[in-house]
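Board notes (copied after class):
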Amino acid sequence: QDLEELGLVEQPHTSAGRVPTDLGYRVYVDYLTKPDQLTEQERKTIKQQILREGQGVNEILGQTARLLGDITNQLGVTIAPKFESGKLKSIRLIPVAEGRIMAVVIVESGLARTVILELEASFKESQLLEVETLLNERLAGLTLKEIRKTISARMADIHGHGRLLKLVIDAKERIWREDTDAAMHVAGTDHLMELPEFQDHEKLSNLMRVLEDGKVLSEFLAQASDEGLVITIGKENKIREIMNCSVVSSSYRAGNITGAIGIIGPTRMPYSKLVSIVTYTARSITEVLSGLNSQKEAEHGEEKTEE
């Protein structure tokens, strides 16, 4: 049968040649593509660049988005681990200044976040420690999302520590909720602008707007919810603004919680190479974050020993 009759190629207009359809690319990706072998230098560059800006999770993900954009000439996207799905390992309440305490939330993966709380009254360190102990006894092992929804009920029968405990409960949206501002990094817009598919700047503007609004965030996480690679092509993408694009994404792990990285570009992208880059980069982030988490846990253990 003719490839056009099979729906694998099409002629966009009468003066154009035949180009693969979304189905054509899907058949190519599923049955004809083999991932390229990355060179030793390419693997070394990826690992070095991931840590170029520092060892914090936010720095690693920001640099990874830039790395993906630069080495693929596509749009690089990284999504932070879904922090509120992590299980609480411990919370610490640390006085940092007059009228201010820092809540340090540590999840079982070893990742941590800090929130500064303003106090209307002064509290002794012993009072902070007592409330910290109560919180850990009642909340450890629950996901941050569960805590945010149920902390009021879980602490309702506790008497004493009224003002301090009320402060922590009232700040539940700040302490336990996802930090969406730092959730996603996007880089490589300049590369897309050079591609013929994005010479229409309105099309590129629509794409960037939907990314900045975070509407594509849940789509990425749904695609890469399990460790492994996901490729969506053209109209397989449910979001209208990227229906003329392909997305190659993979999840990475930080302990027991996951994030995702990926690239977005035209459907004619070089899949063999990009699959290898995304897969190796995701695996490298998992290794880096696992190393950082082990280091944090060791430091945390040393702190407890000193205490």
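Comment from the instructor: Residues 296-307 have pLDDT under 50 and may be disordered. The first strand starts at residue 9 and ends at 10.
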